[in-house]
Design brief:
Blueprint: E1 7-15, H1 17-21, E2 26-35, E3 52-60, H2 64-78, E4 80-81, E5 88-90, H3 93-107, E6 111-113, E7 116-118, H4 121-126
Antiparallel strand pairs: 1-2, 1-3, 2-5, 4-5, 6-7
Length: 144
């Protein structure tokens, strides 16, 4: 596969503007997958200006759907479900970020890199161009 066609997956946690303005602790986890040629994360730009991106982490695109499904299942057991949709939960965002990291790390224990199996997430990062990304955005800055 040419590098221009390489896919990157992202898992993120966001508090949408309406919940921020009402000071509600409602957060949405989500996923997106896009080509290396378009790393502008257009999915995140679809949220209303003033939304708060709390966390984003790059993962292999072929794992993004199962990781998100596992996050949803875990969140159902740890957090209160919000009625806006299956990805919306009420709780502590720091605990949510920790849960997301634990799930991603558990999926990364055995991954294939260029037909070689590596044994740990750290070894995977050392042998690939995939990196962990953490972004914090001030509530007042929002998106453009």
């Amino acid at each position: 596969m040419e590098s221009g066609n390489k896919k990157h997956g992202y898992i993120y946690l966001i508090r949408e503007r309406e919940f921020l303005l009402r000071n509600e602790h409602v957060y949405k986890h989500g996923k997106t997958c896009l080509s290396e040629a378009n790393l502008a994360l257009p999915r995140l730009n679809k949220y209303k200006k003033g939304s708060e991106l709390l966390f984003i982490r790059q993962v292999p695109c072929h794992t993004v759907h199962i990781i998100e499904s596992n996050i949803t299942q875990r969140f159902k057991t740890v957090f209160e479900k919000h009625n806006d949709g299956y990805e919306y939960f009420i709780g502590d965002p720091f605990v949510m970020i920790n849960e997301i990291n634990n799930i991603v790390n558990s999926h990364s224990q055995m991954v294939a890199v260029e037909n070689n199996v590596v044994s740990t997430y750290e070894e995977y990062l050392a042998n690939s161009d995939i990196h962990k990304i953490i972004i914090t955005v001030e509530a007042s800055s929002g998106f453009v």
